[in-house]
Hints:
Blueprint: H1 28-31, H2 48-88, H3 102-137, H4 163-170, H5 183-194, H6 200-203, H7 208-235
Amino acid sequence: MSYGIGYFAFPPGPPPQRLEGRVPFASTENLKHLGSEPAINHETRPSDEEVRARLKEQQRRAAEEEKRRQRLERERHEVYLSELAWVRSGGILRDAQGRRDRARTAKMQEEIRLQDEEKRIMDRWDAYEARWRAVSASNGDLSWGDIPWPTLDPPASSDHFTPEAVSEFIFATFRVRGMNGLRKDRIRSSILRWHPDKLPGVVSRVLDEERHIVQDGINTVFGALKQIQDQEKQMA
């Protein structure tokens, strides 16, 4: 069978199949936006004056918050001090319902004990330093009892200057809360102070009848300090 001129002839067969997955042509409505520029945000930037005003407001709020924090801290500290004084005088703290708060009272009593012990330690060390300044500044005669020996109790002889006794004294302040400094610095400064070559001026002022025992005490203290330094190095 044939068709007339002007027509294409197609061989017989099944109708053409639809191709799955083919992207359809865009509609005219979709195409009219292609190639257009993105929208521009025409919102104006804040002026320098506005920026300065905002910064000033932030600083003002921060300053007010810091003042508020400091005020609350002072108030809490004042309450703490008043409770401390109350317990120290023998009073018992109470809770919000007015009942005796024995647990908090016991905790406060322990704090008082620690504070008193720390004060004794610091007073003892300050007195030791003050006595050394007095000895260095004076020109008068000295005796065994005038020397600021580094022990908790007044020593009767050089036998008292064991490494344990000297260590207990020179490191006592490090048990105080908030104490700054290093043990190695304390031992170094003590060795320099008690070096026999550093103390001829002190020994020469000691009474003749006590000079030999004072010199022996200085040598014994220096030896104890050297032992302590060696022990500290081994523990480091």
